[in-house]
Amino acid sequence: MRELRFAIKNTIPIFFTYLFIGIAFGVLTIDAGYSVLFSVASAFFIFAGSMQLVMIPMMTSGASLLTLALMTFFINARHIFYGISFVERFRKMGWRGVYMVLTLTDETYSVLCSVQYEPGLDEDRATFYIALLNHLYWIFGCLVGACAGRLLPFDMTGIDFSATAFFLVVVINQWRQYRSKLPFLTAATCALGYYLLLGKDYFLIPTLLTCLFALLALRRPIEAKEGRVDA
Amino acid sequence: MPETLYSISAIAVVALVTWGLRAAPFLLFGNRPLPKTMRYLGKALPPAIMTVLVIYCLRNTSFDHSPFGIPELASCTLVALLQIVKKNMYLSIIAGTVCYMILIRVL
C-alpha cells in the first residue's frame, strides 16, 4: 500500500480544494431544487467543477441539451491539451488508462505534472490512485454539500484559493526543472495579452491555441536547451 | 420534457462532451506511434498550461475597486516566496490560503 500512501501525500492540497468547491456545488444543486442523487451523479460522471457550477443555473432556466453541450465544449475545451503529454503513459495502463483519460481534471493534470515518484514505486498504480483519490474527494465534497452544506458552522469562503496556490507551486517547481523558460514566458505573455484584449470570460481558449502554435514555432530554441525528443 | 428525464439527459450530455474532450488526443493517435511533434509538445506544453491555469484562476480578481486585488497578489507572492525559499509544498499552500482567507475578510 506504499502507492496509496504516496498518492494520498501528493493529493492532500486537492482534498481541501475539492471538498470546498464540491460543497459549494452541493449547496447550489439543493438550493436550485435538485436532489442529493443529482449532485453525486454529476460528481461521479462529469467530474468537472466549473462546468458543474455553470450547468445548474443553465438548467433552472431550462437551457436546451444542445446549449448545454456547446457550453461544456467551450468551458472544458482546455482538457484537450492535457492528454497530449500522457498519450503514451495511459495507453500502456489498460482499463486504468481509460479511467485516467476520463478523469483528467485540471487538478489531476497538475499533480501528474509535478509528482516526483520515489524509487521502487509502482508508478502506474500510484498514478491511478492519484486520479481515483481526487475523484473520491470530489464526490465526497458534492455529497457533503448536498446533505449538510447549509449546516456547516464556519464560513470557508476563500479556501478555494488552495487550488491557485497549488498551481502556482507546480509552476515554480517546473521553473526549476525546465532549462528553457520560453514556455512560461510565452504562456504568461499570451494569457495577459488576451486577458486585456478579450476580457476574463473569453481569453482561455485563444491563449491555449496561441501557446500551442507559438511553442511549435519556438521548437528549435526550446529543444536546444531541453534536448531533442528521441524517435 | 419531464424534470427527471431532463436532469438525466443534462448529466449525460455534459459528461459525454467532457469525456470526448479529455479523450480527444487518445482517439486521435489511437495505437499508432506518437509523431515526434506531439512528443515535443507533450514536453513543452505542461509549463505553458500550468502558467495559463494560474492566471485563469486569478481572472475574477478586480483591480478597479477595493481591495484592488491585494489579497490575490499578496497571497500569491507569499506562496511563491515560501516555495522558492522553503521548497515545502504543504507549507506554501496552507500559508498562502490562510493569508488569502484572512485578507478577504479584513480588507
General description of the model:
The complex is a heterodimer of chains A (231) and B (107). Chain A has 231 residues and is mainly alpha-helical. Helices cover 75% and strands 0% of the residues of chain A. Chain A is built from 13 helices and no strands. Chain A has helices at residues 2-31, 36-45, 49-60, 65-76, 79-83, 87-91, 95-102, 106-114, 123-148, 161-177, 182-198, 204-217, 219-226. The longest helix of chain A has 30 residues, at 2-31. The mean pLDDT of chain A is 92. Chain B has four helices and no strands. In chain B, helix 3 runs antiparallel to helix 4 (89-106). Chain B has helices at 3-29, 36-57, 70-85, 89-106. Classes of the chains: A mainly alpha (231), B mainly alpha (107). At the A-B interface, helix 1, helix 2, helix 3, helix 4 and helix 5 of A face helix 1, helix 2, helix 3 and helix 4 of B.
Q: Number of domains in the coordinates of chain B?
A: 2
List segments of chain A where confidence is low: pLDDT < 50 over at least 5 consecutive residues: none
**Overall number of domains of chain A:** 2
**String of helices and strands of chain A:** HHHHHHHHHHHHH
Strand element count of chain B: 0
By oligomeric state, this entry counts as: heterodimer
Order of helices and strands of chain B: HHHH
The major pleated sheet of chain B works out as: none
Share of residues in helices of chain A = over 70%
Helical amount of chain B: over 70%
* Separate helix tally of chain B: 4
Which radius of gyration of chain B do the C-alpha atoms yield?
21 Å
Summarize this structure briefly.
The complex is a heterodimer of chains A (231) and B (107). Helix content of chain A is 75%, strand content 0%. Chain A has helices at residues 2-31, 36-45, 49-60, 65-76, 79-83, 87-91, 95-102, 106-114, 123-148, 161-177, 182-198, 204-217, 219-226.
Keywords:
heterodimer, A: 231 residues, mainly alpha, 2 domains, B: 107 residues, 78% helix
